[in-house]
Structures are given as C-alpha cells and as structure tokens.
Amino acid sequence: MTTAAPRRAAIPAGVSLDIWGTLLASDPEFKPARNRMLRDALAPGVPADVFDTAVRAADRAVDERCVRLGADIGFAGRIEAALVALGLPTEQVAARAGELVAAQEELALAHPPRPLHVELPAAVSALPMPVVLTSNTGMLPGELMRKLLVPAGFGGLPGVFSNEVGVAKPHPEVFAQACAVLGLPPARVRHVGDNPDADMVGARAVGMTAELVRPDGVSTLRVLRGLQP
Ligand SMILES: [Mg+2]
C-alpha cells in the first residue's frame, strides 16, 4: 500500500502574501528621515540618534506585542511608546497625528520600499491563481501602502491591512478577510510569510496552508515558482 504523504501540498486555489520581509524591504533612507521629522516635531531637545534608536526599539517592541496579542497598534501608538521610553509627554501625538502621518507619507513616497528581489513582481503577476496581500501595517497604514505598492511593482493587488481590519496577524479575522477577498474557503488558500507566529500560526489556525520564507526575497521567489502548475 503506497499511502506516504505527498512531499508538498497540492497547488492552492488562491494565495495570500505577507508584504514586509516577504515581498518588500524599506528604503534604508526612509526610517532615518521619518524619525528626524518626528524628532523635529515632537522632541527637538532629544539628540537625533537617541530619538532614532528609541523609535526603532519601540517599533520592534510594539510589533512583538501585536503578534502576541493579535492587536493592531499603529502610527500614534508606536510614537507614544517611543516618547514614554524617552520620559516625554505623549499628549501632542494624538493632537498632531494627521499632520505627522501626512509628513510621513511624503517621506515614504520620496524613499519608497523596494521588492526584496528584482524578479518578485513578475513572479507574483505570473501566478495562475488570485492573490491577496495580507499585511500587518505597523506605522505605515494601508492607505499609504496601496500607494507604495505601485512603484514597487505590486500595484493593483487587493490588500487586507491590519490597521483597516482593526486587529493584526495572527488574529484569525485578518486571515478570514483575506480568504473572503479571494472568495475561497481557507483550506484552498496558501499564505506565504516570513513570521513563524504572525504568518504560520495565524494562517494555519483558520485552516489555511502556510509556507514560511526567509526575508531575503530569494526564498519567496522559490515558493512562488513552486506555485506554478
Ligand atoms: Mg513580514
């Protein structure tokens, strides 16, 4: 009797792709420029390098909290966490959030993220099944991400963004919305991402199949080519 499991899962009917670390990397000039802008606006007395380090550390710590709790904490919450770490008041963040988000958008469009591998946009376009982008947005909301995806070569793809869902991967609602966008039951959708908890645990918990990639672009390219019939 030959009942050995197949070496790889069947080709799925739809694909959900994480963005950061799976398809895109940020421009190395973006975060320093954004953090300088935030320092000038919110904490001009703090040395630029100290402020930059505090924002990066807060961003990472909040990312970990979001994955642990399935909660979405966006731009204002992350800046507030950095200010708290610096012993500064946070009231002005909420009051000035609109202005600061607009300034961030201008800098992000001037230093847009790039595909992790130059062949990734074509590899996504060549997929023979529908695709949805399923992303925890962090400080860059979905509204801005849709604009940034265009020059990166991923324009026009539908997206499910955590700040718009109100919860973050691995929360099942994010994956449920991704499957709804594809119009497919979870069991027929493959999620591809670089985070073992947010992407793998989250997708599998709702019944999707999931494939982990390394955040180097080559790994994603290999997975996408494996989805060709
Ligand atoms: Mg990622």
Explain how this protein is built.
The chain has 229 residues and is α/β, with parallel strands linked by helices. It has 2 domains: 125 residues, HAD superfamily/HAD-like (Rossmann fold, 3-Layer(aba) Sandwich); 81 residues. Helices cover 52% and strands 11% of the residues. The chain contains 10 helices and 7 strands. The strands form 2 sheets. Strands 5-4-1-6-7 form a 5-stranded parallel beta sheet. It has a two-stranded antiparallel ribbon with strand order 2-3. β4, α6 and β5 form a beta-alpha-beta unit. α1 crosses α2, α1 packs antiparallel against α4 and α3 packs across α4. It is globular and about 60 Å long. It starts with 13 loop residues before the first strand and ends with a helix. The relative contact order is 0.19. The mean pLDDT is 95. Magnesium ion (MG) binds next to loops. The site of magnesium ion (MG) has 7 residues, from loops.
Number of helices: 10
Q: Mind describing the biggest β-sheet?
A: 5 strands, parallel
End-to-end Cα distance: 27 Å
Overall tally of domains:
2
Mean pLDDT: 95
Strand content: 5-15%
Give me the CATH superfamily of the largest domain.
HAD superfamily/HAD-like
Q: What is the element string, with H for helices and E for strands? A: EEHHHHEHEHEHHEHEH
Radius of gyration: 19 Å
Structural class: alpha/beta
**What is the count of β-strands?**
7
Nutshell version of this structure?
Keywords: Hydrolase. It comes from Flexivirga caeni. By secondary structure, this protein is α/β, with parallel strands linked by helices.
